[in-house]
Specification:
By secondary structure, the chain is mostly helical. Among the domains are: 25-95, no CATH class; 118-149, no CATH class. It is built from five helices and no strands.
Length: 149
């Protein structure tokens, strides 16, 4: 057993634990790039061979800021793309930014005015022709519409 004291904690045996991992500038740039691309912490840690807890503890706040900056950049790109490709802007908005397409569904009659007798006769003739065509197959035909007077 040696009687050397630790330089950090001045105790023998040393109680200060394992030294902190030092990240290179290249690793930090890659972490930032992955965060701006909205990668999950587990994905970043796996790609760079860093434990998830270490990544979260050392870069948690920065990763959140980098992700927010990436979303801002994406919104700016979305605005630019909307000028040329509306489909791409919609795709990015829905899948990356959580935007939704508002869909309004109205219930009730689609046509407020009553149908004329001629339109009703045309609908009946179409239903009759359809049923005759279906009777030649194994599919059960739709009952003919009753005449409303």
């Amino acid at each position: 057993m040696t009687d050397k004291l630790c330089n950090n904690c001045k105790k023998n045996p040393c109680k200060c634990g394992r030294p902190k991992r030092q990240f290179t500038d290249e690793e930090i740039q890659k972490i930032e790039q992955y965060a701006r691309n909205n990668c999950h912490n587990r994905t970043i840690s796996t790609a760079l061979n860093i434990p998830v807890n270490t990544l979260t503890r050392r870069f948690g706040t920065k990763i959140r800021r980098w992700r927010a900056a990436g979303k801002v950049e994406l919104r700016q790109l979305q605005r630019d793309l909307a000028k040329t490709s509306s489909d791409m802007a919609k795709f990015l908005g829905i899948n990356e930014l959580g935007q939704q397409i508002k869909q309004v569904i109205e219930t009730g009659p689609t046509d407020s005015k009553p149908k004329t007798e001629q339109e009703l006769e045309a609908a009946r003739a179409g239903a009759k022709a359809f049923n005759e065509a279906m009777s030649k197959t194994n599919i059960i035909p739709i009952k003919e519409a009753k005449r409303h007077v």
